[in-house]
Amino acid sequence: MLNVYFGSCEDEIYNPPAFFVNQYEDEWITTDLSKEMIKDVDKSDVISSRVIDSPVLGPITPRELSGGVQTLMLMAYDESGYTFNASSCGNNCAKWILKIAEKKDLSVTLHNIMDFGNGMFDIRILNEDKIVHNMQEFVETAIDYV
Amino acid sequence: MRGSHKIEIENKRLRYDFAVKRNITVIRGESATGKTTLITMLQSLEENGRDSGIRLHCDKPCLVFTTTRWKESRDQIHESIIFIDENQKFVTSQEFAEFVAHSDNYFVIVTREKLENLPYSVDEIYGIRISQKYAGFKKTYNEFYRIYYPHGITGDADMVVTEDSSSGYQFFKRAYQNIPCVSANGKSSVASKVRSLKGQRVLIIADGAAFGSEMERIEELILHGYDIILYLPESFEWLILASDILSDPEIRDILSHTEDFVESELYMSWERYYTHLLVAKTQKTYIAYSKSTINPNYLKDKVLNQICEMVPRAIRPKVDHLK
User: pTM for the full model?
Assistant: First the structure.
């Protein structure tokens, strides 16, 4: 399940891309999930664990991936126990956050109102320990915090 | 600093073209649109000059504020355009807001935080996209686009909510006599006030020049079940000035290119400049303006009607009963 804390919490990594470049592992880049996320968000193709083909930037390393995709990979694979700031991700990352949270109990912070789309979902709002099921409930709760 | 400043920055693969015309510009939007790449190019140029292979055309220096520079050398930078990348926590601090308030620099801030301490305009929140004007070229041309465009304004509201609790509220309460009018007592309370009015059609009147921090919340309410009409003139004072009630050619000229008159060091937002201008221009006249309490002459038929003429027709107060 996805757990969202609006605002900062004690174990938050506020700048996930800075954390990513120093902590990512080669194996993260070549998983099917990472390849799909990189293709969908960055429109880029993973060539190998150290080379990605970007249509705009040309060949790049994982360090030059978007901050959104870097944060998604931390959410999926990092085991340090930190809580990552999901506001590093644009709305085009929202469906991937929900997907990652299908497989694990994922806690993130949010400093803006991410749009998770028009579908139904289960997101636990940690500030109030309640579960919201759609964007209207999510927004109505979020405006008290961000 | 004042005025509009065009910025062109490019390398072999990428080019960005945009202009900034207020002290605060905010860039947000989806991931992977080139926000950080823009900052990285500016940083590389700053560190390596011509050796970077990056070309910049701008009539003002363009610099990148990192946390280190913010802490150690911020007071040495003047008359520059300062870029700040995402995830720099200092931009949310009161200390940073105070620095911006008295700065002769312009700021371009990449962030999805609402930055409630900074009064930035709804018109100066941009995303970055690939320009279709140059589609097919080997180089990618990036342009800025406004994230929040005015919504189509239609129909009657059940309730009017003003951001303002003083003169603006008093004016609109009088103008919209047939519709309940309440004040949210400040911009940060507008969203929660609207939430409390769920099920009603609410007309929000707020100062567009300083309402940027609230736009995401209001937009998300609109997208997810709330019936909201947004009217965001620059400010209530702008509305009075633009109504031409003073028949002053200088005011008309200022309103047509305000960016050339607002000194960023003196006015943190255009809303404050318009207040200063209106107070100065109406001093010792029958419509002497005070922000705290509306001068009763603004509520009399002729003046009230003329100002209301500035409101879009679909939501204009029906003031015939006052004639």
Answer: 0.95
